[in-house]
Amino acid sequence: MTAEPGGAPGADAHLDRLIAYSQTLHAHPETAWQEHRAARWTAELLEEYGFDVRTAYLGFPTALHASYGSGRRRVGFVVEYDALPGLGHACGHNLIAAMSAGAAIALRPWADRLDLRIDVIGAPAEEGGGGKIELLEAGAFLDLDLALMAHPGPVDAARAEPYAVAHDHVRFTGRAAHAAAYPHEGRNANDAFVVAQVALGLLRQQLPPGTRVHGIQTVGGQAPNAIPETTEGRWYTRAPSLAELEPLRRRVERCFEAGALASDTVLEFTPESRPYSEFRTDERALEIYTRHALALGRTFDAPPEQRTMNRASTDMGNVSQRVPAIHPYIGLGCFPVSNHQPEFAAACVGEAADRVIRDGATLLARTAHEYFGGAGNAGPAPRG
Q1: Which residues of 350-372 are buried (b: 16+ CB within 10 A; e: fewer)?
Q2: Cα–Cα–Cα angle for 165, 140, 311, nearest 5°?
Q3: Max alpha carbon distance in the chain (Å)?
Q4: Contact, 161 vs 200, CB < 8 A?
Q5: How many helices (H) and strands (E) does the chain have?
Q6: How many Cβ atoms are within 10 Å of 45's Cβ, its own excluded?
Q7: What distance in Å separates the CA atoms of residue 316 and residue 140, rounded to the nearest whole number?
Q8: Distance between CA atoms of 229 and 139, rounded to whole angstroms?
Q9: Which residues form the Peptidase M20 dimerisation domain (predicted)?
């Protein structure tokens, strides 16, 4: 085991390796459930620093679990590494991976002193696939005393306040026909989508405050002179909590049913993942994180309209319902450039991104260090 130093953990000693790892992920984006290279590179990084790594964790090919130490108390750092279709790492998951892995590496020298086992959980498919929920249901996370990760955004925002969200796949099936010669023989699946979108637009004026409904049509037909037989889309419904989400989702589904009824087509409205939950913050851990962030020179005084990335949905919310957790947002200082824009993907490499890796890894490690007694208190007893 590594010798125990004084002071507090920091990422500087390993920063060059973390930056190289982050840049490699950024240059080779992989979408949900396809993160084979990212999982391998993460495993290789952690093995370099003495972690015991299990790949294909709990039967998920692109999930992993790494551990260091054998203490009774367990802290988990959560790695995300999936990218967005067509946008690459425009949500900054390459930085999340580097911060979480870097925090675990930085905390290693304190494992014995704090009676810790340090876990790293590589969780695939955050972008709509609910990878953490699948892992949670398979038994991951449940033995942790604290789970931590940080997410890049335009500015710093300490508290995660994400919407609960449902992700649904929409498919209309009609009947193809020649649009000029035999239009009366067709059943237009694209018309179904048009009717549904009009219904959704009208629904929005009656939506409860603090809810969101949005999506895209991914298949709209093949030729202008052929009545589309099949159309498809992906739709998200968001609400402040799971309890409020389901009735709203049902109203959204009825809009798509209206499209099918009007066009005489058949609707399939199918969940793409289990719903993501609202977040339950561990207040003590968040207070520690915020205090250390201020000491590092980070600030939380950006205008409210710049801090709204903290409303973005995450399957880490489901983890937080079962395990003490935090999910702060750490700023690249790039507003009005924001997540899920090509410009944000570009901002996730370079000088500002390197600082986010250094600060984020350091802050997560220092939060865990103090939480478990490294600042002179006994810390929490092991759960269970």
Answers
A1: eeebbbbbbbbbbbbbbbbbbbb
A2: 25
A3: 83
A4: no
A5: 10, 12
A6: 26
A7: 12
A8: 42
A9: 169-259
Rg (CA), the chain: 23
Beta pairing class for 164-173 and 230-239: antiparallel
Torsion of CA 10, 13, 17, 20, to 10 degrees: 70
The C-alpha angle with vertex 357 and arms to 308 and 283, in degrees rounded to 5, equals 55
Helix H or strand E segment including 199:
helix 189-203
Compute the distance between CA of residue 131 and CA of residue 85 in angstroms, rounded to an integer: 16
Domains of the chain: 12-162+278-371 (3.40.630.10), 166-271 (3.30.70.360)
Could you report how far apart the first and last alpha carbons of the chain are, in Å? 26
pLDDT digit string (tens) for the chain, length 384 residues? 333 456 889 999 999 999 999 999 999 999 999 999 999 999 999 999 999 999 999 999 999 999 999 999 999 999 999 999 999 999 999 999 999 999 999 999 999 999 999 999 999 999 989 999 999 999 999 999 999 999 999 999 999 999 999 999 999 999 999 999 999 999 999 999 999 999 999 999 999 998 999 999 999 999 999 999 999 999 999 999 999 999 999 999 999 999 999 999 999 999 999 999 999 999 999 999 999 999 999 999 999 999 999 999 999 999 999 999 999 999 999 999 999 999 999 999 999 999 999 999 999 999 999 999 976 556 666 665
Element (H or E) spanning 205, and its range?
none
Angle at 303 between CA 357 and CA 100, to 5 degrees: 20
